[in-house]
Amino acid sequence: MRLPGRHVVLGVSGGIAAYKSCILVRRLREAGATVDVVLSRGGARFVGPLTFEALSGRPVATSLWTPGAALSHIRLAQQADLVLVAPATANLIARAALGISDDLLTAILLARTGPVLVAPAMNDRMFDHPTTQANIAALLARGWVTVGPDVGSLAEGDSEAPGRMSEPETILAHAGRCLDRRPPLNGRRVLVTAGPTREALDPVRVLTNRSSGKMGYRLAEAAWRRGADVTLVSGPSSQVDPVGVEVRRVESTADLHREVSALLPSSDVLMMAAAPADFQPVESAPLKRPKPEQETMLALRPTKDILSSTRELRRGDAVMVGFALETGGAIEKARRKLEAKAMDLVVVNDALEPGAGVEVDTNRVVILHRTGEAKTVPLQSKTDIAEAILDEVEVVIGRRASAVPETAG
Length: 409
Ligand code: CTP
What we know:
34% of the residues lie in helices and 23% in strands. It is of the alpha/beta class. It has two domains: 7-179, Flavin prenyltransferase-like (Rossmann fold, 3-Layer(aba) Sandwich); 182-279 and 302-400, Rossmann fold. A hairpin with an 8-residue loop joins strand 6 (150-152) and strand 7 (161-164). 43% of the residues are buried.
């Protein structure tokens, strides 16, 4: 997560989860953000200003009435790229919903016109109370965003009830989305596939490939951050589920085909970053095959090509992105795949180049448009490659929206 040059005002109200906000300050700073911490009276009782001052590297504000800081609530409310309240107690949420501005934090919230992200944390009964629910609904109606609370054990020892503040990493991801959501991906439905698939030889042995899933996972994260509703269909991968993304795990190419077929009709964008197994054994043995005594032949048949065989399920204006991992003659082969599979964009890379291809964290790619343009993206992290690919997806969506004819050439 990167937030370079972003200014975040972090309001901390009086809940035990305030200790997790110390870690949140660190995460925000590691991401490159400048953090001004504002403590409510209750917040300052749980964690002192000195702790937050040391972590943020900046003075911590606690009062409306500090000499020399007159109108600091207006300045902070206007200057911040994001106002984030974590933890937000039931009391803080109630005061914010009613527009009560009896301390610095609530005054900032009342003067705020830009994005606000709220991470509620409270006892589960207080959270369930109709008043709290109505107050949260009022904040959402104002365009504010909430994250959590999570289900889990609470300070009072009650088990598995909603009320725990979300983890700092989750809040950080939502902060990124609040800052980066934007047209044309905001609100679009994006389907991403990732990872290899496995074809069973018997109950314990499989045919698969070296795909790690990294490219697809980075794409899913980046699309979500830009505001899309993202579903990620993933073959076996050790990658962690991205925050906010619906993840469906599959095993074989047939499983992947089934999920893509179900989701494609409602998708605005499909990004086929998966490396589906191209072959499956003609026979999958129900019991483990005994080790062959001598050289043996394995009969294989091709699996279904997902992009080609789901063409009739695509929406007319949906954007199709495919990948082509080649070993030599990459551009010509990729262009043929783009035509054959009717893609709008194909992301080409050559697995023989150092730092490119499967299993590594970096890549260098060329993004080919159906219209003929080619964008070269030099060697960089898959996170940055994902951003570059999404920039091109936005170009295609933008052209369709403004009905500029896409001529070949
Ligand atoms: N793809 C697919 N269904 C398959 C295999 C691949 O939809 N059964 C998709 C991939 O996800 C990728 C694109 O097609 O976006 C190109 O995949 P690639 O493996 O490079 O091409 P193939 O058509 O499988 O050709 P080959 O492996 O012979 O190069």
